[in-house]
Design brief:
Elements: E1 2-6, H1 15-28, E2 33-37, H2 43-49, H3 60-65, H4 71-74, E3 76-77, E4 83-85, H5 90-96, H6 104-113, E5 122-126, H7 134-142, E6 145-151, H8 161-175, E7 180-187, H9 194-207, H10 220-227, H11 232-235, H12 240-256
Parallel strand pairs: 1-5, 1-6, 2-4, 2-5, 6-7
Antiparallel strand pairs: 3-4
Helix pairs in contact: 1-2, 1-12, 6-7
Length: 263
């Protein structure tokens, strides 16, 4: 079982979109997948469960704050075949009351995942848009890898990236995590524009071979899927968005293990 966090302290870079659509592509290829929604905005929860995040009785916040709960107590089976640990805005309150030196603020998720005994091939974690706090610390402590989604058209795409990577490195050292950068995923790309080409070139120069070959091209089908709270491949399997996320999922798996992609 590999745990992969999708992390960026900026919002609007396609982090949640990448989590839900990558997990959908993995399921389509026969892998067993769980998504952990650690972003209290609950967008992964809404998209995958097709329910208001506040309709879920138990969330990842309850899991982290209650030592007697196990993942099965909070798990939601979704219509697309992905198991989900949901969240909502109450997660902030549940985690904030934990004592500052509590192990739950650091190792809660990692300890709970150990009980799964490799039930899943992949666990994808949708991280909150921040670089400190109990939620991001739990994600980094529990993960084997992280994917860094970066918007491909913003001139500010690389702003603060050093700070983010350094923060993750510090948490890794403090928690004994083995997490490492799996790669940078460039999202919302439009290389037909000069701005798109300039930003993509800058990202390639900065990250070199850590940039995934697959980019997520800007297209309206992804936007429509987000508005309908659906995965793009469920809305239109022939769309550019579906093709891009399917290609990325394959590349991501091959980076981890050359032998595991099935089709």
């Amino acid at each position: 079982m590999k745990v992969i966090s999708f992390a960026n302290y900026k919002g609007g870079v396609g982090k949640t979109t990448s989590v839900v659509n990558t997990s959908r592509a993995l399921i389509e290829n026969g892998f067993k997948v769980m998504v952990v929604d650690l972003d209290p905005q609950g967008n992964s929860t809404l998209t995958l469960s097709r329910k208001n995040p506040f309709e879920h009785e138990k969330t990842v916040g309850d899991l982290l704050s209650d030592k007697d709960l196990v993942i099965a107590d909070c798990l939601v089976a979704t219509p697309v075949g992905i198991d989900l640990l949901p969240t909502n805005l109450n997660c902030y309150n549940l985690v904030s009351v934990l004592p500052p030196n509590s192990a739950k603020r650091i190792y809660g998720l990692r300890n709970k995942l150990q009980d799964l005994e490799d039930k899943y091939d992949f666990v994808l974690v949708d991280c909150p848009p921040q670089i400190e706090g109990a939620l991001i610390t739990n994600a980094i402590s529990a993960s084997d890898y992280y994917v860094l989604p970066i918007e491909g058209e913003s001139v500010y795409a690389l702003q603060g990236v050093d700070h983010l990577i350094q923060a993750i490195d510090l948490i890794r050292e403090d928690t004994g995590s083995g997490i490492r950068l799996l790669g940078t995923l460039v999202t919302m790309v439009d290389t037909r524009t000069r701005a798109g080409r300039v930003v993509k070139d800058a990202i390639d120069k900065y990250f070199k071979d850590m940039v995934f070959n697959t980019v997520i091209r800007r297209n309206t089908t992804i936007n429509k899927a987000n508005l309908k709270n659906k995965c793009v491949c469920d809305l239109d399997p022939r769309s550019v968005g579906c093709l891009d996320y399917s290609s990325f999922a394959k590349e991501m798996v091959i980076r981890i293990d050359q032998s595991t992609w099935k089709n």
